[in-house]
Write a structure and sequence with these properties.
The chain is mainly α. It is built from 10 helices and no strands. Helix 7 packs across helix 10. It is flat and about 45 Å long.
Length: 175
């Protein structure tokens, strides 16, 4: 959330700060899960999308922070494009265009990405049933959740849980 806030701010060097934070986060992930990715660490390059300047742009950025917060805190609920556009009082086509310029994907893909990321966290760190995780992350059914998860992660939720549990066990045995 802090990276998003920094990236959307108009503060001096906010783009540079955001790029550095993203790079550091990715390096930490690569170190933990891909220890042999040394060359990849040397070739990282992020580019935060340009922002509008002036009062209109700042107001828009504040609305997008509000939107991201809403998505993260209401992911278990049904979220529609109408809901999002009404929340920030933007025309739907403007919302989709601006959101895609900022995040690289349309808003509803971002919603599902957030849901999958939360599901991955729950699969890896809890013993909740996959049905409960699907419900908690806002997927309408276990079948849709499993199909969508497999499409995005190239494995089923159960396979993801088993793989991650093996990685945790291997890490614990090294301690």
């Amino acid at each position: 959330k802090e990276i998003v806030k920094e990236g959307l701010s108009q503060a001096l060097y906010s783009n540079e700060s955001t790029n550095a934070a993203l790079e550091l986060t990715l390096i930490r992930i690569l170190r933990q899960f891909c220890p042999d990715a040394g060359e990849a660490l040397r070739t990282l390059d992020f580019d935060v999308p340009p922002r509008e300047t002036g009062a209109a742009g700042r107001n828009s950025d504040v609305q997008f922070i509000k939107l991201i917060h809403y998505i993260e805190t209401h992911m278990a609920e049904r979220i529609t494009l109408d809901d999002l556009s009404n929340l920030v009082h933007f025309n739907k086509s403007y919302l989709v265009e601006r959101f895609k310029n900022i995040w690289g994907v349309p808003p509803m893909k971002y919603v599902n990405w957030i849901r999958v990321e939360k599901a991955k966290e729950l699969l890896a760190t809890t013993d909740k049933s996959i049905t409960d995780i699907a419900r908690e992350t806002g997927f309408g059914s276990i079948h849709y959740f499993s199909r969508y998860f497999k499409e995005k992660e190239h494995m089923t939720p159960q396979s993801y849980r088993m793989k991650y549990a093996e990685d945790l066990y291997a890490a614990d045995s090294h301690l």
